[in-house]
Design brief:
By secondary structure, this protein is an all-alpha fold. It contains 9 helices and no strands. The mean pLDDT is 89.
Length: 231
């Protein structure tokens, strides 16, 4: 019964804004990873280069360059996973001291009970936690990719060389998908924080995040460079 009592502090517009943000997060992720053929995303374009990378790796001697690139990718996932873990700790600390947020809100003439601030921070923590799990999984997949890469023979005549290179490429792409999902989670966590300004703030913040993500995947300078014809 207490739960329903707390719901009275949230309006219908709050519910619409939250559903809008979560739905946009899911739909945007699907569209980016499964774009229309006439307008492929930057992530999909880079995936083709990842496949080619693994094929060229077969004949590259030594493979220090490939190992260095893969290590750099893993370091990126580790760094962002650590950052997410710190953010989760900070969010939980903020929830445990929600009275301070209520006091600040009162100073700004915003009357709201503690439960409202807790729920709003929890929404951001939901996206941050999802991002953390994606980065951890991405790091592990890049590790799998490294193991398969190490099993690829330098002899192009080896019948197992090309199939294993293709396996390494697909593992690399799968790891990149998880990494990209983690990045989207961070973006949407920042958008979720705009709920602290109210449901309208959440709608505006969520829309800004959607615009930024769509632009970077479908209308960015990097995409135009990748789409450039190679003579």
């Amino acid at each position: 019964m207490e739960l329903f009592d707390h719901l009275q502090y949230f309006s219908l517009l709050d519910a619409v804004a939250v559903i809008y943000l979560i739905a946009a997060w899911g739909v945007l992720g699907y569209v980016i990873e499964n774009p229309p053929k006439k307008r492929v995303s930057t992530s999909v374009l880079v995936a083709d280069y990842r496949r080619e990378w693994m094929v060229h790796m077969i004949s590259r001697k030594p493979r220090i360059f490939d190992a260095t690139v893969l290590a750099t990718l893993r370091e990126g996932t580790s760094f962002l996973a650590s950052a997410c873990l710190i953010a989760i700790g900070g969010g939980l600390a903020a929830i445990s001291n929600a009275e301070r947020l209520s006091a600040v809100a009162s100073d700004l003439a915003i009357e709201a009970p503690k439960i409202i601030w807790e729920v709003k921070i929890l929404l951001a923590l939901f996206f941050i936690t999802n991002a953390f799990l994606k980065f951890i999984w991405s790091n592990r997949l890049f590790g799998y990719c490294g193991v398969v890469m190490a099993s690829v023979s330098n002899d192009e005549a080896d019948p197992q060389a090309l199939p294993r290179a293709h396996k390494a490429g697909e593992l690399n792409i799968t790891a990149a998908r998880a990494f990209n999902a983690g990045i989207r989670g961070i973006y949407f966590a920042l958008g979720a924080l705009s709920w602290l300004l109210g449901p309208v703030g959440l709608l505006v913040g969520g829309s800004i995040v959607i615009f930024i993500m769509l632009r970077r995947e479908f209308a960015s300078t990097s995409r135009r460079i990748l789409m450039r014809e190679e003579v």
